[in-house]
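Because showing beats explaining, we think one record worth quoting, sequence and backbone structure tokens together, and here it is:
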Amino acid sequence: MMQSVILAENVYYIGKNDNREVPFHRLILARGTTYNAYLLKTEKPTLIDTVDMEFGREFVEYLSEMIDPEELQYIVINHTEPDHSGGMAALAGRATNATIVCTEPAVKELKEMYKLHSRDFLVVHDGDTLDIGGKTLLFRETPYLHTEETMITYCVEDKILFPCDIFSTHVANNQIFADEAGFDITEDFIGYYNAIIHPHRRYVRALIDALETLDVQMIAPSHGYILRNEIQKYIGLYATMSADTVTDKKVTIVYTTIRSNTKKVANHLQRIFEENDIQASVFNADKADHAEILASIQEADAVFVGSSTKYADMIGNIEDILKAMLDMNLEGKIGAAFGSYGWSGEAIEVIQDYLNQTSMNVQSTSQVIKTTGMTHVEFPVRVRFSPKDEQLTKIEHSATFVADLLLSAV
């Protein structure tokens, strides 16, 4: 069932109420969900987000009752995931005059997903504004909430925030406003945060900072209830739930190296952890006392083990450490492999194999993608030759991901 509701002058909610048991991020949404889009019928008519691709045709038919799609001047896509951008598959051929507004990382995704290579795009950056004729849209980039290309849109005159997935709930609701739901939605609000946003909690801080400069009187997300009362309560919940709640965490980093490249990776990992107030101890397994290394591993909350690769194998004494770890009780600890290489980097994979034989929670790219959807975090951490530029960024992403796991209470 599609429905529309007036939120402000010339601002319309257009939503699809999906009251099935909905498969979503390997969860089953027993209470269903909604897919919310918003039409601003200004001098330059603008659509903000669409609906799930499964309901794209129904969405376009319903939208056509409110406005001729050819009249649309802008289509704002805050987030490219198909439950929000999916309506583009049916809409693009009807809204031929519309410029697509999104962040730079979103352009390629939208072009490839919906064959929009010949369409006009307006790339917006953090703080950019757009005059849509009688209303002004302000854009703030919110990367990794919960994918790289995500942004939020704020209507200056109406003080409405359109944050896509952020501040959402998963409930198939006939009453679109939270204050008309007939029950306290806080539990559903927190449940959504924990399931979708919390793995990306670090990036909530930038969101909260951005909102401090905005007078938000209504939050119109892309799932579930629209919030028009107790706005600061809901923003405050995100601030509280994303705050560091665990202290005194320790990381042990053990490595061997040929030409100091793996040492540089180890030192960069250490720096990132220490910037997050996590104690990081670094050992060269060819120089440090092995008893001291193993004692540090036993006390640590996370363990990174790395080696350079020579003739398709690890170097130095790192294998002695790994063999000793097999006899240790490491349950509850986070494990990760890293290293530098010049050709194929087999040593890193051998370390990963060793770690997988322990009782640690060993990080892998596959696990990260399946649990968070993040594609910018990679495990093992593989660096070719000396780490620089993009490779330093890759190391930072991986260390930050583990730091978040350590500092998170959920």
About this structure: The first strand starts at residue 2 and ends at 8. The domain at 250-407 is CATH 3.40.50.360 (Rossmann fold).
